[in-house]
């Protein structure tokens, strides 16, 4: 756990506003997923904020961006995917953006600014969550440059904090 952090529950009004905003961005009805009363706890660190929804670290915020974490199974099941070749995996897992030459294919529909799941071509394992820089049709035509902005990846500080939080549950 980072040396400096704060942990507290959000007021229900703040929690509802957060879930509404994120539902819109993810195009998923989070209220329907969680059904019962939702408790949202915030863990503030020097590098990010982690939102624990009913005890699970499902959302993170770095800068102004709120995005799903790689342990948010409901998002992982529904998210559009960008499949990358095995040569791109170590780069993406070190924080690099997803570049056009490393992309092997796309699964699902997405628009510019939507969150997508980056998976490896061999096992289909999620390695990152990113923001699409193009809509699907444009992304298929791009031959060079950044197609997905990497926001959260396996092994980053957020991932490490999530693993630490899960071990204490």
Helix/sheet category: alpha+beta
- CATH homologous superfamily placement of the largest domain: PUA domain
Instruction: Give a quick account of the main beta sheet: strands, pairing sense, barrel closure.
Output: 6 strands, mixed
Tally of strands? 11
What is the level-2 CATH architecture name of the largest domain? Roll
- The helix count comes to 6
Mean pLDDT: 92
List the main descriptive attributes of the protein structure presented here.
alpha+beta; 2 domains; 169 residues; single chain; Archaeosine Trna-guanine Transglycosylase, Chain: A, domain 4; five-stranded antiparallel β-sheet; six-stranded mixed β-sheet
Describe the 3D structure.
The chain is of the alpha+beta class and 169 residues long. The protein has two domains: 5-69, Nuclear Transport Factor 2, Chain: A (Roll); 75-153, Archaeosine Trna-guanine Transglycosylase, Chain: A, domain 4, CATH 2.30.130. The chain has six helices and eleven strands. It has helices at residues 12-26, 30-34, 73-78, 89-92, 136-141, 157-167, and strands at 5-9, 40-45, 49-53, 56-62, 65-68, 81-84, 98-99, 103-107, 115-120, 126-132, 146-153. The strands form two sheets. It has a six-stranded mixed beta sheet with strand order 7-11-10-9-6-8. It has a five-stranded antiparallel beta sheet with strand order 1-2-3-4-5, sandwiched between helices. The longest helix has 15 residues, at 12-26.
């Amino acid at each position: 756990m980072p040396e400096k952090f704060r942990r507290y529950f959000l007021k229900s009004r703040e929690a509802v506003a957060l879930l509404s905003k994120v539902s819109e961005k993810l195009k998923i009805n989070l209220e329907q997923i969680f059904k019962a009363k939702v408790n949202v706890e915030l863990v503030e660190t020097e590098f990010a904020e982690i939102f624990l929804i009913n005890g699970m670290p499902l959302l993170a915020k770095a800068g102004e961006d709120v995005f799903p974490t790689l342990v948010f199974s409901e998002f992982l099941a529904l998210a559009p995917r960008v499949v990358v070749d095995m040569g791109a995996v170590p780069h993406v897992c070190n924080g690099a953006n997803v570049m056009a030459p490393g992309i092997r294919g796309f699964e699902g529909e997405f628009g510019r600014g939507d969150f997508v799941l980056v998976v490896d071509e061999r096992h289909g394992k999620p390695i990152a969550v990113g923001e699409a820089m193009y809509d699907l049709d444009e992304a298929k035509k791009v031959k060079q440059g950044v197609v997905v902005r990497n926001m959260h990846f396996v092994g980053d500080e957020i991932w490490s904090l999530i693993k630490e939080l899960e071990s204490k549950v």
